[in-house]
Design a protein that fits this description.
161 residues; mainly alpha; two-stranded antiparallel sheet; 4 strands; 69% helix; elongated
């Protein structure tokens, strides 16, 4: 996609020795791996939101079908013969609202990651100006919670600790 093209372009630019010093190259490569982890994380956020949204939509369709069939119950959970329980319309509505709120919360966290990785990417333009970057980093860290992320050069994966 577009993000892959941007990453490839950054990697091509990073490989040109005249842009980064030898010391900067290690930092630039490690930083690119962090950006790839962020890109993958944002992809997972989108897939997760989509999946939970589909479940919430399915729940709404079930309620509507039950209402059309005249089966919607307003009583509390009732034990069925097999020990299972049925949910009331109100309980399903509450679950659906909670799912939608969860999607909203996850989306906001994803936005924070996206904004952070964008600002991080801007800092990577060569040559690396560490004095300016340190100032920007301190301002950014002052207003953001910290999530610890590890990445290795061999598998390019990330995990949260």
């Amino acid at each position: 996609g577009m993000m892959d093209g941007m990453m490839d372009g950054m990697m091509d630019g990073m490989m040109e020795e005249e842009q980064y010093s030898a010391k900067e190259m290690k930092v630039a490569k490690a930083s690119l791996n962090v950006m790839k982890c962020s890109k993958n994380l944002l992809g997972l956020v989108l897939k997760t939101c989509e999946c939970v949204g589909e479940c919430a939509d399915k729940m709404l369709q079930e309620v509507e079908e039950e209402e059309l069939a005249g089966e919607a119950s307003t009583a509390p959970l009732e034990d069925l013969e097999d020990g299972a329980q049925t949910e009331t319309k109100q309980q399903k509505d509450q679950k659906r609202r909670e799912m939608l709120q969860w999607i909203s919360n996850l989306h906001e966290m994803g936005r924070t990651v996206g904004e952070g990785v964008t600002n991080f990417g801007i800092l990577l333009y060569p040559p690396l100006d560490t004095s300016k970057n340190q100032e920007q980093l301190e301002k950014w860290l002052a207003k953001k919670p910290i999530t610890t992320m590890t990445a290795t050069d061999t598998d390019e994966s990330c995990s949260f600790i």
